[in-house]
Write a structure and sequence with these properties.
Keywords: Coiled coil
CATH class of the largest domain: Alpha Beta
Family: Belongs to the UPF0749 family.
Organism: Andreesenia angusta
InterPro entries: DUF881 (IPR010273)
Helix content: 40-55%
Pfam families: DUF881
Order of helices and strands: HHHEHEEEEEEHHE
Distance between the termini: 93 Å
Strand order of the largest sheet: 3-2-7-1-8
Radius of gyration: 31 Å
């Protein structure tokens, strides 16, 4: 009898414990993950590529400055007229690099326009129109191919230029530009054409996969205007000698 009572007590005890465990909600810690879209991935890839191009430009600028330094050392002891001529030449070179002066030279004329055909690529209408990321990627490819000066619909592209979507248009230097987009480029025509039309390039994909209109024409003379805005100045950055930064 005592054994039966003991068994009943034990069974009751385990039943209570088991019931408590089953009735208590199990909490599982789940990490929060941000949603990653294809659009955000493409945007980040474009930004990374743009930064790589900027790094290449900066490295080239460093090499140019080293050459200029050697030239200045060679001018030590020269007469004033020689020094003035050297300074004027350097100022003119800086203006050309900054994009302030209009320039002319051999290059290409690139026309990019939305897919105007009846054939719709995919199920998303956005695949048939030009976006700011498309223009930026093309610009990166042109810079890698040695582009020395670029303009889009008459707007000079400089280091401060922004290419952003603004509704149905794209804003370049804060000015609206509508489809089609005419990109004028100065540089080696063959290299520039290859960077846009070569198999596997972004321009080739736009043309043959998404049916975007991409037309390239080599030109003996391409005119590119200077940067027009008056805000081409730094508000916070100040000039500082290299030895002062240490």
């Amino acid at each position: 009898m005592k054994l039966e009572v003991k068994n009943i007590v034990m069974i009751t005890f385990f039943s209570v414990v088991l019931g408590t465990m089953l009735s208590t909600p199990l909490k599982q810690e789940v990490e929060d993950y941000d949603m990653v879209t294809l659009s955000s991935i493409d945007s980040l890839k474009t930004e990374v590529e743009s930064l790589k191009v900027e790094v290449d430009v900066m490295e080239k600028s460093i090499e140019d400055k080293k050459e200029k330094l050697e030239e200045k050392k060679a001018l030590e002891g020269k007469d004033d007229a020689t020094l003035i001529k050297s300074i004027e030449s350097e100022i003119d070179s800086i203006k050309q690099i900054s994009g302030v002066h209009p320039v002319e030279g051999p290059g290409i004329r690139l026309l990019i326009a939305d897919n105007a055909s009846e054939e719709i690529v995919g199920q998303n209408i956005n695949d048939d129109i030009i976006h700011d990321s498309d223009i930026q990627t093309i610009l990166n490819d042109l810079k890698r191919a040695g582009a020395e000066a670029i303009s889009i619909n008459g707007q000079r592209v400089v280091s401060k230029s922004e290419v952003k979507c603004g509704g149905p248009v794209i804003k370049i230097n804060k000015r609206s530009s509508a489809n089609p987009f005419v990109i004028s480029v100065i540089g080696d025509p063959k290299s520039l054409v290859a960077s846009v039309e070569g198999k596997g390039t972004y321009g080739d994909m736009l043309k043959n996969v998404y049916k975007i209109k991409v037309e390239v024409e080599e030109k003996e003379k391409v005119f590119i205007p200077g940067y027009e805005f008056e805000d081409f100045r730094y508000l916070y950055a100040q000039s500082k000698k290299e030895e002062e930064s240490n």
